[in-house]
Amino acid sequence: MARTIELKGEPKLGPMFAKAVVTGSKRKGRTLPDLEVVRRDVTPSVADVADYDAVCGFALSNRVPSTYLHVLVFPLQVALMSDPGFPFPLMGSVHLENTIRQHRPVLLGETLELRARVENLRPHFRGAQADLVGEAYVDGELVWEDRSTYLFRGAKVDGEVPPKVDEPEAIDGFGATWRLAGDLGRRYAKVSGDVNPIHMNPLAAKALGFPTTIVHGMWSKARMLGALENRLPDAYEVNVAFKKPVLIPSTVRFIAQSAGGPGSFVLALRNAKKGTEHARGTIRPL
């Protein structure tokens, strides 16, 4: 039977991450819960959006960046993954890909209803993967959708493991160079609430196999989108697949090429020195 959890206030991610660490070893299920997490009457703060814009490279305007809506729905997704019925540990999960569909711009001052659920559990050659789905409504109108695919390493689920497919090389060429300071993880955590320690604490990052702290994947996506915001249509879909983590501090190169029509682009984020691919993506009008 389907369950609904309604959050009455702004959830705190710190305690939820702590709970996920404590309960992670007990999570050994193989099926997803039929659960939806809801939060109503959410009005983005002008000051909070401005702080987010400054960290992610968006211009100040009366439009809420589509990636900021992910910031608002992310705590609902963490609440879902912290629920006792969720089968996999949150800590150590890997954000593989994110797709956002903006049906129209959300304006500052509008009041949102946010919803989150999980679906599409399937095998992965490194474990299991599932999609965390977020939605935002204004007066019953679906204005925004978000789908984040997570890998849960080592998990076993029913189904045939798909073969590993060799992808073609991402685009390359001239682009914008961005120098990322060592405190970027802490700065993005402050404006997003995502306090996963691998982005802020080198020791925590090393404990999970990284040489030092790594950039939030959704910062990379937001920064790429911010660089193109004055060329985007009102309604669009943006997909980004996260590849090699971005270590901080570092220097990266952002490449965007037209995909043939107005508002259509192919994107890549690479290490400025070695050319390592960190992320690739596409934008298309709806």
How are the SSEs ordered, and which strands pair?
Layout: E1 3-7, H1 13-23, E2 35-42, H2 46-56, E3 63-64, H3 66-82, E4 94-102, E5 106-107, E6 112-124, E7 127-138, E8 141-153, E9 176-180, H4 184-192, H5 202-207, H6 217-227, E10 236-242, E11 250-258, E12 265-271, E13 277-285
Parallel strand pairs: 1-2
Antiparallel strand pairs: 2-6, 3-5, 4-8, 4-10, 6-7, 7-8, 9-11, 10-13, 11-12, 12-13
Helix pairs in contact: 1-3, 2-4
Described by strand count, sense and barrel closure, the largest sheet is: 11 strands, mixed
CATH class of the largest domain: Alpha Beta
Question: What is the overall number of helices?
Answer: 6
Integer tally of domains:
2
InterPro entries: HotDog_dom_sf (IPR029069), MaoC-like_dom (IPR002539)
Protein name: MaoC-like domain-containing protein
Organism: Dermacoccus nishinomiyaensis
Family: Belongs to the enoyl-CoA hydratase/isomerase family.
Structure in a nutshell:
The chain is an alpha+beta fold and 286 residues long. The protein has helices spanning 13-23, 46-56, 66-82, 184-192, 202-207, 217-227; strands at 3-7, 35-42, 63-64, 94-102, 106-107, 112-124, 127-138, 141-153, 176-180, 236-242, 250-258, 265-271, 277-285. It has two domains: 1-164, Hotdog Thioesterase (Thiol Ester Dehydrase, Chain A); 166-286, Thiol Ester Dehydrase, Chain A.
